[in-house]
């Protein structure tokens, strides 16, 4: 049995410290946690998620469960100010088309594994000043249509 909830917007719900998902999978396709204080969200029970906004300023590492989101097309990590690195298995997000990294102030590198995202069309790096270079295999992103580098490097 799955719940029919498709959209959950917890923008600026800073009273939530933990987000406990039910024991049954959700049909959730859109989840917005921007401005919330959820520090370690678990995405195991949201297998249908297509759009995720995780603008959580205190998050240092993304949970491993994020890379199990096979249907994820849009990932916005705006203002994840303490994010130290992207998951090494980010390449498992096979359907990812858009990746937004804005104001990720301590992020130092974009892993080469990002070049395995065959459907990535849009990559935005804004105010990520510690990133000194892009992956050398970035040219392998055959679907990449837009690359934004604003106040980076």
Keywords:
153 residues; mainly beta; 7-stranded parallel sheet; 7 strands; single chain
Describe the protein in words.
Helix content is 0%, strand content 18%. The chain has no helices and 7 strands. The protein has strands at residues 7-9, 30-32, 51-53, 74-76, 98-102, 122-126, 146-150. It has a 7-stranded parallel β-sheet with strand order 1-2-3-4-5-6-7, with no helix packed on it. The termini are far apart.
Please report the number of helical segments.
Answer: 0
- Separation, N- and C-terminal Cα atoms: 48 Å
> How would you classify the quaternary structure?
single chain
Q: Beta-strand level of the residues, as a percent range?
A: 15-25%
Spans of at least 5 consecutive residues whose pLDDT stays below 50 are none
Mean pLDDT: 83
Helix share of residues?
under 10%
Radius of gyration equals: 15 Å
Task: Specify the biggest β-sheet.
Answer: 7 strands, parallel
Structural class: mainly beta
Order of SSEs, N→C? Answer: EEEEEEE
List the helices and strands and how they pair.
Elements: E1 7-9, E2 30-32, E3 51-53, E4 74-76, E5 98-102, E6 122-126, E7 146-150
Parallel strand pairs: 1-2, 2-3, 3-4, 4-5, 5-6, 6-7
Concise structural overview:
With 153 residues, this protein is mainly beta. The chain is built from no helices and 7 strands.
């Amino acid at each position: 049995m799955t719940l029919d909830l498709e959209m959950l917007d917890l923008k600026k719900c800073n009273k939530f410290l933990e987000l406990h998902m039910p024991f049954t999978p959700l049909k959730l396709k859109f989840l917005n946690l921007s401005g919330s204080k959820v520090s370690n969200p678990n995405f195991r029970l949201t297998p249908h998620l297509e759009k995720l906004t995780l603008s959580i300023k205190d998050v240092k590492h993304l949970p491993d469960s994020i890379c199990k989101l096979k249907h994820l097309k849009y990932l916005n990590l705006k203002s994840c100010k303490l994010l130290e690195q992207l998951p090494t298995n980010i390449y498992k997000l096979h359907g990812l088309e858009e990746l937004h990294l804005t104001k990720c102030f301590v992020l130092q590198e974009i892993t080469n594994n990002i070049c395995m995202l065959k459907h990535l069309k849009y990559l935005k790096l804004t105010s990520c000043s510690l990133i000194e270079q892009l992956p050398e295999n970035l040219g392998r992103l055959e679907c990449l249509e837009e690359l934004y580098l604003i106040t980076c490097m």
